[in-house]
Amino acid sequence: MICPVDTKNLSTMKIGSTAHSMVCISHPSQIEPALSKIDSFNNKLFVLGGGSNTIFGDNLENTSIVKIEIPGIEISSTTHQEISIKAGAGEVWDDLVKFCCEKNFQGLENLSYIPGTVGASPVQNIGAYGVEVKDSIEEVHAYDTQLHSFVTLRPAECDFGYRSSIFKSNPGRYLITYVIFKLGPNRRPNVSSYKDVVEYFKDADSGVTISQVRDAIISIRQKKLPNPEQIPNCGSFFKNPIIGEQTAKEIKSNYPSAPIFPYEDRFKIGAGFLIDQCGFKGKSIGKIVVYSKNALVLTNPEGATINDLFTALMEIKNAVRSKFNIDLEEEVNLIGIK
Ligand code: NAP
């Protein structure tokens, strides 16, 4: 059924307004009929997964939301070296990771406890603790609204980058239906060099298991990230900026503990560190509160509006620009902004 929807409850940030219409898709065969209906409205199309990385604004009168709820997790093939898992785009991401870790399939354990759906994982090329989902993707199945047909994209065709992909840079073009993952049976887990993980395992012997890595990541994330069901938020609000060598050197000489890491031929700096250095950690900016344990997370404990959010994010961006001469870029998707 296609009907108007209050988008506030579709985003874990709990900010939004009424969109023209929404349709839920639980099988690929429902896509073409739904799209022809949306075409007849002459509306913009927005494809929604779990809403954990999406913030809705006030300008949604001409937007139709397609919510992908295609279910299913199945082992599609196995060899001695590789397991293929086919997962419906509507599955909860962490249910898939749990399934794989319990079966001792290696590849996704560092991506435990990330909110959102399977279908959103390639869009954002989700990453955590030194692992990106692109490394475990074999194929992405989607409906291409430009070609008007179902397509299968191999990783080389997905234009994966740092928290980016062809799906992110072409909003509304692809409706992801299934993702096929390639995982390793009986491979050693990826114990990352990230300081929280190193600290967690400092007393462990050499035989860390895939499930132990998953437990570690869940425990670390629970300590540093607010649960959106208790405090509305969308996780990391900004991307970690990529900076040149000279800027990296200057910041490192003033702030020796700054989290700066090589990234391709440049450097990546933690956005949370920059925001913290500007004095925002734990601070309220109107109704938006910068999370006290992680300055990269903006929270909405008091029912903020999109204007409240924009005021806060402009204040943060301006402060970081004037102190470090670095422009922060949003990692979250902002939809329907006037
Ligand atoms: P952190 O340890 O405080 O470090 C700050 C940033 O520095 C991280 O974002 C990370 O970049 C980078 N970093 C740290 N150690 C690194 C290393 N050994 N090698 C390369 N880069 C390193 O970070 P945090 O905020 O607690 O986050 C830990 C991990 O969880 C990160 O990978 C982060 O992306 C992920 N995370 C994701 C979300 C989300 O909503 N998507 C939310 C929270 C945390 P990278 O981000 O590139 O890894």
Give descriptors for this structure.
338 residues, six-stranded antiparallel β-sheet, binds NADP nicotinamide-adenine-dinucleotide phosphate, four-stranded mixed β-sheet, alpha+beta, 21 strands, 26% helix
Describe what you observe in this structure.
With about 350 residues, the chain is of the alpha+beta class. Helix content is about 25%, strand content about 30%. It is built from 9 helices and 21 strands. It has helices at about 30-40, 95-100, 120-125, 165-170, 195-200, 210-225, 245-255, 270-275, 305-325, and strands at about 5, 20-25, 45-50, 55, 65-70, 75-80, 85-90, 105, 125-130, 130, 135-145, 150-155, 175-185, 235, 240-245, 260-265, 265-270, 285, 290, 295-300, 335. Strands 6, 7, 8, 11, 12 and 13 form a 6-stranded antiparallel sheet that branches. A 4-stranded mixed sheet has the order 1-2-5-3, covered by helices on one side. Strands 14-20-19-18 form a 4-stranded antiparallel sheet. Strand 11 (about 135-145) and strand 12 form a beta hairpin. About 40% of the residues are buried. The mean pLDDT is about 95. Bound molecules: NADP nicotinamide-adenine-dinucleotide phosphate (NAP). NADP nicotinamide-adenine-dinucleotide phosphate binds near residues 194, 225 and 261. NADP nicotinamide-adenine-dinucleotide phosphate binds near residues 130, 194, 270 and 294.
